[in-house]
UniProtKB/TrEMBL annotation:
<dbReference type="InterPro" id="IPR009100">
    <property type="entry name" value="AcylCoA_DH/oxidase_NM_dom_sf"/>
</dbReference>
<dbReference type="InterPro" id="IPR013786">
    <property type="entry name" value="AcylCoA_DH/ox_N"/>
</dbReference>
<dbReference type="InterPro" id="IPR006091">
    <property type="entry name" value="Acyl-CoA_Oxase/DH_mid-dom"/>
</dbReference>
<keyword id="KW-0285">Flavoprotein</keyword>
<feature type="domain" description="Acyl-CoA dehydrogenase/oxidase C-terminal">
    <location>
        <begin position="234"/>
        <end position="385"/>
    </location>
</feature>
<keyword id="KW-0274">FAD</keyword>
<dbReference type="InterPro" id="IPR009075">
    <property type="entry name" value="AcylCo_DH/oxidase_C"/>
</dbReference>
<dbReference type="Pfam" id="PF00441">
    <property type="entry name" value="Acyl-CoA_dh_1"/>
</dbReference>
<protein>
    <submittedName>
        <fullName>Butyryl-CoA dehydrogenase</fullName>
    </submittedName>
</protein>
<keyword id="KW-0560">Oxidoreductase</keyword>
<dbReference type="GO" id="GO:0003995">
    <property type="term" value="F:acyl-CoA dehydrogenase activity"/>
</dbReference>
<dbReference type="InterPro" id="IPR046373">
    <property type="entry name" value="Acyl-CoA_Oxase/DH_mid-dom_sf"/>
</dbReference>
<dbReference type="Pfam" id="PF02770">
    <property type="entry name" value="Acyl-CoA_dh_M"/>
</dbReference>
<dbReference type="InterPro" id="IPR036250">
    <property type="entry name" value="AcylCo_DH-like_C"/>
</dbReference>
<dbReference type="GO" id="GO:0050660">
    <property type="term" value="F:flavin adenine dinucleotide binding"/>
</dbReference>
<dbReference type="InterPro" id="IPR006089">
    <property type="entry name" value="Acyl-CoA_DH_CS"/>
</dbReference>
<comment type="similarity">
    <text>Belongs to the acyl-CoA dehydrogenase family.</text>
</comment>
Length: 390
């Protein structure tokens, strides 16, 4: 069995690659230096249909012409030239659109999805807090019903696509009560941008992903109608865990794009850079490192698209979840290693910001953290094997 992409997927890959080379690659370095979030290019991505690849036609999406594998292809190709725009697409679909598409009411879908799918607007998802990341059960943000409205108080951090000029809403997890077993009841509440009491704090000064929109959020008696509950009350934590399964594969695709970029840059540089009377690619010390990049690329891509295939084929959820964690763990750690190798191949120039390899080096580390850290992936994989790991 192989996981080669179909002819349609390969044609789609070429179209996204052409877009990325024309619209993103020439400007990525400047956006990174300026910490600039390019709204116009994000909206062009929407016009290309990239935000609607998993959405039915009735909301403006690709319908039967799109699937999860197509989304991974798009994320890989965008991430190959700019990881910031890659994560913008990944989060815009995986954390913004998909929760509404999966758990929203018909009214919620009709209200929010068309603009999100078109790329005219973005949505974020707020789970992480100062004291609750992987331990989402430690959520402290609260939402209480009062006279037909949810009143939200608390704070979130590291939230992507949450404070741009085209952000339309952020869905947040919040305590809405206590379960029979004494544990907190976690629900998901949709908060439109501009809601009184909903404050988008100053953007983070990050190590990487400089062109991505990321903010801490705070809520002080932020009130929204009761019908802004997303999904069933008390099911917010379970909904988010399911959302993360898809997100892990999408982050894997972003990592594959990073590895491919490192390989491309290293091969080109090793053929051009001359030392001791010849190109450095003649030296085994360099050539073998680049060979390792090629190996990591193939393994990461196969793991990623196998997981995507399991999703699209309707495989048992247990199988998909295990494949998602395996792909996420291997591809993200490989991406971090790939950027280190590529930087070493470039030598002193690899330490200079004028070379794209430095940007990929900075961007890669967070891949091992977002959508579940490497430690969490190892825990999930072990549990999938039947081990009673805590």
């Amino acid at each position: 069995m192989t996981y080669d992409l179909s002819r349609e997927h390969e044609e789609f890959r070429r179209s996204v690659r052409e877009f990325a080379q024309a619209e993103i690659a020439p400007h990525a370095a400047q956006w990174d230096r300026d910490h600039h979030f390019p709204v116009d290019v994000v909206q062009k991505m929407g016009k290309l249909g990239l935000f609607g690849l998993t959405t039915p036609e009735e909301y403006g999406g690709a319908g039967e012409d799109g699937d999860f594998t197509s989304l991974c292809v798009a994320i890989e190709e965008i991430g190959r030239v700019d990881q910031s725009l890659g994560i913008t697409l990944q989060a815009g679909v995986g954390l913004g659109i998909n929760p509404i598409l999966t758990y929203g009411t018909d009214a919620q879908k009709e209200r929010w999805l068309p603009e999100l799918v078109a790329g005219d607007k973005l949505a974020g998802f707020g789970l992480t807090e100062p004291g609750a990341g992987s331990d989402a059960g430690a959520t402290r943000t609260k939402a209480e019903l009062d006279d037909g409205e949810w009143v939200v108080n608390g704070a979130k951090q590291f939230i992507t696509n949450s404070g741009s000029e085209i952000t339309s809403l952020v869905t947040v997890t919040a305590r809405t009560g206590t379960r029979e077993d004494g544990k907190p009841e976690i629900s998901a509440i949709m908060l439109p941008a501009g809601t009184p009491g909903f404050t988008v704090e100053k953007a983070y000064d990050k190590l990487g992903w400089h062109a991505s929109d990321t903010h801490p959020l705070s809520f002080e008696d932020a009130r929204v109608p009761a019908d802004h509950l997303l999904g069933a009350q008390g099911r917010g934590y379970a909904q988010f865990l399911a959302t993360l399964d898809d997100g892990r594969v999408a982050i894997s695709a972003l990592s594959v794009g990073c590895i491919q970029a490192c390989l491309d840059m290293s091969v080109a540089y090793a053929g051009e850079r001359q030392t001791f009377g010849g190109p450095i690619g003649r030296k085994q010390g360099v050539a073998f490192q680049i060979a390792d990049l090629e190996t990591m690329l193939h393994a990461s891509r196969l793991l990623t698209y196998r997981a995507a295939w399991l999703k699209d084929s309707g495989a048992p959820m247990k199988d998909f979840r295990q494949a998602a964690s395996v792909a996420k763990l291997y591809a993200t750690e490989s991406a971090v290693t790939a950027t280190r190798i590529a930087t070493q191949v470039f030598g002193g120039y690899g330490f200079m910001e004028e070379y794209p390899v430095t940007r990929f080096y900075r961007d890669a580390k967070v891949l091992e953290i977002g959508e579940g850290t490497s430690e969490v992936q190892r825990m999930l994989i072990a549990r999938g094997l039947g081990l009673p790991v805590e």
